[in-house]
Amino acid sequence: MRYVVCYQANARGQEALNLSIALARRQEAELEIVLVLPEESPFGAVYPPAPASLVQQQAERWLAEALAMVPSDVPARAQLRHGESEAEALIAAAEEFDAALLVIGAASHGLFKRFTVGSTASSLLHAAKVPVALVPQGYQNQEAITRMSAGIGSRAGADEVLELALDSAQRRGLPLRLISLLPLDGVQTAARENLQSKLNAALDSRPELNLEPEVVVAQGDSIEQAIDALSWEQPGEILLIGSSRLAPARSLFLGSTAQRILRALPVPMIVLPRGHQSRITP
């Protein structure tokens, strides 16, 4: 199993690398650390342009530094790619390596200093065919992930996310928490019973699973408040969430609820494409 890491020689790239290492340690995955340089173009050049050889050499030094930061127990390779679009180059790398995951850091500013989806991440969330992991600003953890949470809604696709969460938690040997978010005027008991019913049905059909997931219903005046009201096992937790029902099959699309969750979330989020196959769940 391979993860493609969007690397840049800055804090954002380091944070993406940190999460990749933490995830790889639970899956024994290999890292493909990719740094993308823009293709040379007379229309996009900065004058006087730097010699291509110097840019290449500097990029190779950055990649060597990235490899030096990867612990010896995590297999990793680094490569330099060129492309008109960073997102397109990363997607091409993911397809080439049959990657199970794309990992990218957040932009350097945002609500609560946690997440802001930059242009490359936004493009990935609209075009990638594999799960995309978004890393919050300041993420320093490289130790193995300790808990997985999954946001389970009531709309189409929720059962699919539940199945993928069960598969991933089982494969990683992680405790699993299932989260339902409600406005303050929502009926918490009904929401819990609905989610518990879905979980029971899934477990009954999968006797091979050795899991005892926790079911949690969070409430607040807003999605952001509901997220803040939850306890998060930092720095070792991740949140799985499905794509919007508007996404084409086997594609990503971050819906409005997920975007609001992202703005308040203190832990990394993995967005799953619609129709994603559990055999390659990250």
From TrEMBL:
Record's Gene3D superfamilies? 3.40.50.12370
Entry's InterPro entries?
Answer: Universal_stress_UspA, UspA
Q: Any idea where the UspA domain is? A: 4-136, 156-273
Pfam families assigned: Usp
SUPFAM superfamilies found in the cross-reference section: Adenine nucleotide alpha hydrolases-like
Task: Name the CDD domains for this protein.
Answer: USP-like (cd00293)
Q: Which family does it belong to?
A: Belongs to the universal stress protein A family.
What's the protein here called? Universal stress protein UspA
Upper taxonomic lineage = Bacteria, Bacillati, Actinomycetota, Actinomycetes, Micrococcales
